[in-house]
Structures are given as C-alpha cells and as structure tokens.
Design a protein that fits this description.
- The complex is a heterodimer of chains A (335) and B (474).
- In chain A, strands 1-2 form a two-stranded antiparallel ribbon.
- The longest helix of chain A is centred in the middle third of the chain and has 32 residues.
- Chain A is built from 13 helices and 4 strands.
- With 335 residues, chain A is mainly α.
- In chain A, a hairpin with a 2-residue loop joins strand 1 and strand 2.
- Chain B folds into 2 domains: 256 residues, no CATH class; 186 residues, no CATH class.
- Chain B is globular.
- In chain B, helix 7 packs antiparallel against helix 10.
- Chain B is 67% helix and 6% strand.
- Chain B starts with a helix and ends in a 29-residue tail after the last helix.
- The chains are: A mainly alpha (335), B mainly alpha (474).
- Chains A and B meet through helix 3, helix 4, helix 5, strand 2 and helix 13 of A and helix 2, helix 3, strand 2 and helix 13 of B.
C-alpha cells in the first residue's frame, strides 16, 4: 500500500500553523489592543489571562518552522530567503514581546517602556506575519528548487494589505479572548471595541478575497468555475453569518460566543487560503511532493509526531483547564 | 574579497553572535530547572521552609532566563532558512527531523508545564506542582539530547548517503547516536549544571559578603559548592574522553587546538601557551612540555598526534582561535576545581561562611561557567571549519544562494542592537534579582533595612512570586 506521506505532512503542518494562528493570535492581539486600555490594573489583568500559556502558544510556530524544515526542506529554503526582512522583523518583534511579558510584571519605573515594547513587538510581529502570508498567496519565484527573486519582492501593496488584515484578525481574536476571560467594566469596554474590530475584519477579509481573485487568474479559476463554486460557496456565506453572529452576541452580552465565532472566521479564512494554493506549498508552481524531504526523513518524523502530538494536545488542554475561568484584578498567584 | 564572500563572512558572524547569546540562556535554564526540581523535592520531603523560599527566589530568575532562551531560540530556527538555505536544502533531511523531535518532545513539555510551575500554586496540589517542575526539568534535558545529537551529527556524520546533491538519511539510529554524540551530550549537560551552580554560589557569596547569614543563603552556598565539588571532576574526565574521541574523528581539530604543525615521532610535546600563526605554519613563543601532548591525548608516553601540516591548507581550522578558546575553557575548569577544593577545606574547618577572601573568589567565579561554556563551543565549532557538515559540506556552500550583503549586514546590525538592548536589560534584571536575594525569614526581617519583606505575611501564603511592590528597577 502506498501512503502519500507529503499529503499527511501537509495536513499536520496545516493543523499546527492553524493552532498557532489561533493561539498566538489572541496573545499577540492582546498586545495590539493594549494601547486602548491603560486604567489602573487593566493591563495586569489582560496579561494575566495569557501569562501561563503564551509560551506554549508560540511553540506551535516553532513546530511549524521545524516541521517545514524537516519534511519540506525545499519549501523552507525558498520561503525564508524570499521573505528575509519580514522574517527578521517578526523574530525581533517576538523577542521584544516575549521579554516584555516577563519583565513588565517585575518593573515599575520602566514599566511604560516595557508596555511600549510589548505593543510594538506584537504589532511588528503580526504585521510581518501578514506580509509573509501575502507573499505566499501571491506566489514566489522559484527555479530548480531555489528562490530566484529579489530581496524586496515581498514589498507589494497586496502584501502590506494582508499585513493590516492580520493585525485586524489578531486584534479581534485578542478582544474576543478578553471578553471571555474578564468581567465588569473591563469586559464592557472590550464589548465596545469588539464591534468596530469585527466590522473592519470582515471588510479586510472581503478585500483580500476579491483582490486575490482579481490578481490571480489561477485562483479565480479554481473558485469561480462550476461545480467548484457550489462546494466553496459556503465559505464566504459562513463568514458573513459569523460576523452577524458576533455582532448580535456582543449586543446580548455573551461571554464566549464572540471569541468562538471569531475563531470560526479565522478557520474559514485559513481554509480559503488552503483551497487557493493546494497542492502547491509555494505558489505558483512548487508542489508538496516536489518540496518533500527523502521518504526516510518523513517516516522518521511522522512516527514521532503520531505519538507525541496527541500527548502534547492532552497536556496543553490540561494547562488551559488549570487556568480556566475569569481573571480578576489582584488575582493571586500570577506575576 | 567579492560580494558573496562578504555575505558569507557576515552570515557567519551573525550566526556566531546569535548562537553565542542564545546558548547562555538554555544553559542557565537547564541547570536551574534541575536545581529547582531538587529544591522542591527537598521541600516536599523535609517540609523545611528554606527550600520553598529558595525555590520561589530562583524560579523568578529562571522565568526571565527561560523567556530569553525561548525568544532567542526562535531566531536560530529561522536563521537556518534565511542565511543558510544551502545547508537547509542539503542537510535539512537530517537536522530538520532532529529539530522537529526537539520541538515535539521538549519545547512543548517545558512550555506546557512552565505555566503551572510558575503560576499554578493556588490551582494544583503540591504533588501536581512538583510533577510540573519535574516535567520542565525533564524537558530541558530532552532538548539538550536532540540538539546535541544534531550538532554532533554535523561534527561526525554517519548513517546517510548523498543522492542528487542532497543528504538522504539511511539509518536513524546511527544518525542520532553518532560517534561524538555521547561525549558531547554528557559534556554539555554537565556544563549546564556547572553554569547554574557557579551562579547560585556567586549569588550566595554576594549576600554572605554583605553580612547575611540566614539559612537560605548558607544553604544555597553549601549546595552550590557540593555540586561543583562533585561535578567538576566528572566534567574534567568527560572532557578528556571527549578529546580522545575528537582525536579519532576530527584529527585536524586536535592539531589546531594544540597549535601542532609537525607530526612528531616518539612522543608529542604539549604547547602550554603560544601564538599559532596560520600564515607561516608555526606557533610563536611556544612553551613546550615534552611528552605531555601524547600523555593527554593518547594516554601513552609516545602516542602520535597528526600535525596541521599533514592536512591541506584549505582543510585546516583556524588554530589561533581554537588554541586560545580551548585554553580559556580548561583554565576556567581548573579554577573551578580549585574553588571546590578550597571550599571543602574551609568546610572541614567550619569557616565556609566566614572566610571573606573565599567568598570574593566564589563571587568572581560566578560567570566562569558561562565563559567556559562559550569558549568550549567556540573550540568545537570553529574547530569543525572549514566544514559545516564535517568532511561532507563546506561552510561556504551552505549559505543561501540568493542572500545579499545588504540583507545579512542589515539584519546583523538589527540583531546586535536588539540583542544588546533586550537581552542586556534582561541580564541586568536577572542580576538585580540576584542582588536582592531571597526574602529574609520573618523573624530576621524585623528591623532590617530591606523594607517590605513580607512582615505579617503568612509564610505559606499564596503570593509566592514577585509582587507589584517588589520592583526590580528601583
């Protein structure tokens, strides 16, 4: 029996990257909406909602990078040189963000500087990730399995716009997360912010979709021809339904629904991206099979992944369970 | 020097800079995580408060160091792609899976249980908390296992074949357990324990010098010195075995370390000091001890060691660098041994907590673990040159074909600024935390000048970590 290992690996990495976007999305989102909340004690509460888990959340990105390197080394060796400067910007943003997490809580005189590092770090990292996403969607010049484009290929209006789109995505996720994890005045102010964020996010998703369809005939072909159109039509319709769902649930003061519906939008947008580029791993021409590592590498890593990833999911859920429920000002046991 | 050579040189500098900064934090984390596990275990077993307070104190420092290790490590995992795409495309099929295993079996374990270890006191029972601490400590050691396996494979590759210009793994057992791996793994794990022990010892020495004599300070000074006394001799033996292994598999590295040019007959002397000159193929100002080279490197009176001249010029590592980096490492090791033995002597005379000269010595030796660690890594990495995968791929072929001088130069500058700013401040805060020291026990806090130190606070209260009233920047 022939097992299509690259397919399995594409699914695993796709899953890992989705978990990253979902989990670090709300972490980074908290940094993005930080500027709007600076009353006494608010920022402590916001940080405490993620202090025990942010590190694990970021690990999903390291997993995505490591697995890409392990099983699709050709894609790794193309994508990173092609998006060189955004990658550098992203890791620097993550450095500031991560260190600010630890030190802010222990500082007083310089706390505002660490707040700034946290906000700017989150913003730069998110924007850079959006630009990288846009570059991927737009396609990268590859010949003989090597990147042959220029150092600023990633600098295009479309990619800058996907950067803004991802800022909105993470900000909405962060806001939704805090709606779920806070209460009282802070929660009320989150609800006020959630509405415009959701509307902007919906607009950004719409613009990116139409821009992609107009700019890339290949993607348009895939979506707009029969019978594909019928299968894929639910994606935009569901996005719209989620947006309406968020707005109404925020109005009735729901705790969890806005966050879960935002996750649903992220999932739909992400699946839309996969539909557009599959089976390429680097559009427009490098497929998952061409980018694959030797079979022995994929088998060896798969054995590990099949055993370990389920265990990771169990204890990660456990960690979230331990820290379940609302976080209150002055809660004990945090920083 | 043409453009691509400049880019290569900058890429090498960038890697050396980022990896040197990075490795200090994991080393501290590996050592401190095990120390914390021991402290918590002792607390659970004996119920003595001093262990719990030491645990809280060192877990704060651990948390800052760990965060810096995580974020500086993210840089490393992307640098393979940005600057070293040639290496990634060629050897990613081996080093990639090993890195993936590290992420899956170690990083998640650490990150998943770190939250409970640092913030979970009020939410899980003491046994579950101890379990979380053990998982974090185990995670750091598993991480050491995989990354050392990957690095050792690049030093002594086996279990692969080269097909269509890239490496195809054939036997994973041979790859993971390659010839230099067991030696390097033991050497590095012990080094991490020593790094932490030297820091703990120096921190305690600082507070002893400032007049504190409470149980926490004395206990940590004593524990650190016992640790150094036990581990440093083992480390010296491990390093010796590692050297024999290197002579077998990477003779050019040994020749460079010794600044040895000719293959001497009937016993090789050792250059104690000197200045190896790559250009003129000689070692200036050499102070030689006859037969000592053979004794150390072959454990025999007249064992033969290949000189650098028996390797083609383009295959020689830079002897000037590794000659000295090696001697710095060994020198630090000997000073540590001296510290441990003096400590034992003072302990027998019951003067351990009173001899100020000794405490000053222990304080000065605080960074010696990190210095030895960096010097050791420079020796083994620079000693592998000009190869990135020893004997298989040259470093100059590993760089990304598309990378430009502007890209590497700019990113190097950004990294230097960001690292000094962020990690510089981080290290400063770690030092501030150490200088503050563990909270004084309640009975001694009264009347002391250290301000709010938990007066009236229940010793078993639930706010163990730093409080907002405890800033580290004032």
């Amino acid at each position: 029996m022939h097992i299509d290992l690259p397919m399995i690996w594409a699914a695993i990495i796709g899953f890992g990257v989705f978990l990253y976007v979902m989990l670090d999305g709300f972490d980074l989102g908290i940094g993005l909406i930080f500027p709007f909340f600076d009353r006494e004690g608010e920022r402590e509460v916001m940080l405490n909602t993620v202090a025990p888990v942010w590190d694990g959340n970021e690990t999903w990105m390291v997993l995505g990078g490591a697995c890409l390197y392990a099983v699709f080394p050709v894609a790794y060796a193309v994508l990173l040189p092609a998006t060189y400067l955004p990658i550098i910007a992203m890791v620097c943003g993550l450095i500031f963000r991560g260190v600010a997490f630890e030190i802010r809580a222990k500082a007083r005189r310089t706390q505002h500087l660490w707040d700034l590092a946290f906000i700017a770090g989150s913003g730069v990292a998110t924007f850079a990730q959006g630009v990288i996403l846009g570059s991927l969607l737009q396609g990268i010049d590859v010949r003989d399995g090597k990147f042959v484009g220029g150092p600023f290929d990633w600098f295009s209006p479309f990619n800058l716009f996907t950067g803004i789109g991802l800022l909105l995505t993470y900000a909405t996720l962060g806001c939704g997360w805090l709606l779920m994890k806070t209460e009282g005045e802070l929660q009320r102010r989150m609800a006020v912010l959630m509405r415009p964020l959701t509307l902007c996010l919906a607009a950004a998703v719409g613009i990116v979709s139409i821009w992609t369809l107009l700019g890339q005939p290949g993607v348009a072909d895939r979506w707009l021809t029969m019978p594909n159109l019928l299968f894929f039509l639910p994606v935009p319709v569901l996005v719209l339904a989620c947006v309406i769902g968020i707005l109404t649930s925020v109005r009735r003061g729901a705790d969890r629904a806005p966050f879960l519906l935002t996750l649903a939008i992220v999932f739909l947008g992400y699946s839309g991206l996969l539909i557009s580029i599959f089976p390429n791993i680097i559009p427009p021409s490098l497929t998952i099979w061409e980018a694959s590592a030797p079979r022995s590498s994929q088998v060896f890593t798969l054995v590990g992944a099949a055993i370990v990833i389920p265990i990771i999911l169990v204890y990660t859920s456990l960690a979230y369970w331990v820290f379940r429920g609302k976080v209150r000002p002055g809660d004990e046991g945090y920083h | 020097m043409n453009v691509s050579e400049t880019a290569l040189l900058l890429a090498r500098w960038q890697f050396a800079f980022t990896v040197s900064f990075h490795i200090m934090f994991p080393a501290i984390s590996i050592g401190l995580a095990s120390f914390l596990a021991v402290l918590e275990g002792l607390w659970l077993k004996t119920g003595k408060v001093v262990y719990k307070e030491l645990f809280f104190f060192w877990s704060k420092i651990f948390a800052v160091g760990f965060a810096m290790g995580v974020v500086s490590g993210v840089v490393m995992s992307y640098e393979f792609g940005t600057n070293w795409a040639g290496f990634s495309a060629f050897a990613g099929s081996v080093t990639g899976p090993l890195l993936a295993f590290e992420v899956m079996t170690a990083f998640f374990l650490e990150a998943g249980f770190l939250g409970i270890m640092l913030f979970g006191w009020t939410r899980v029972g003491p046994k579950a908390h101890f379990f979380a601490t053990l998982m974090v400590a185990t995670g750091t050691l598993i991480s050491t296992f995989w990354i050392l396996s990957s690095n050792s494979w690049m030093q002594t590759p086996q279990g692969y074949e080269v097909l269509d210009g890239r490496i195809v793994p054939v036997d994973w057992l041979k790859i993971v357990f390659n010839p230099s791996f067991p030696y390097r793994l033991v050497h590095m794990a012990l080094a991490a324990f020593i790094v932490a022990a030297m820091l703990v010892g120096a921190c305690a020495a600082w507070h002893l010098l400032r007049g504190r004599r409470d149980a926490g300070i004395r206990k940590s000074f004593s524990m650190a010195l016992w640790m150094i006394l036990v581990v440093v001799p083992i480390q010296i033996a491990a390093g010796d075995a590692h050297g024999l292994n290197t002579r077998e598999h990477q003779p050019a590295k040994i020749a460079a370390i010794e600044g040895l040019w000719e293959t001497e007959r009937g016993g090789t002397s050792l250059n104690l000091i000197g200045w190896p000159d790559m250009e003129n193929e000689t070692t200036h100002f050499a102070v030689k001890v006859p037969h000592l080279g053979s004794l150390i490197l072959t454990h025999s009176w007249d064992g033969e060691i290949q000189g650098l001249k028996s390797f083609p010029r383009e295959d020689r590592p830079n002897s000037t660098i590794v000659f000295w980096s090696f001697r710095i490492m060994v020198g630090m090791g000997l000073l540590m041994l001296l510290l441990a033995l003096l400590g034992l002597l003072l302990r027998r005379n019951a003067r351990l907590y009173e001899a100020r000269w000794f405490q000053r010595f222990a304080l000065l030796m605080g960074p010696s673990g990190l210095i030895a660690l960096l010097a050791g890594w420079i020796t083994t990495e620079a000693g592998r040159q000009p190869w990135v995968v020893y004997g298989v791929m040259r470093t100059r072929d590993a760089v990304s074909p598309s990378v430009t001088v502007d890209q590497v130069g700019t990113s190097l500058m950004i990294f230097i600024m960001v690292y000094f700013l962020v990690f510089g401040t981080g290290i400063y805060y770690m030092l501030k935390l150490m200088a503050k020291g563990p909270d004084l026990p309640r009975d001694q806090a009264e009347g002391s000048s250290s301000g709010d130190t938990g007066l009236g606070r229940d010793r078993f209260d639930h706010r163990p970590l730093s409080r907002p009233t405890d800033p580290i920047d004032e």
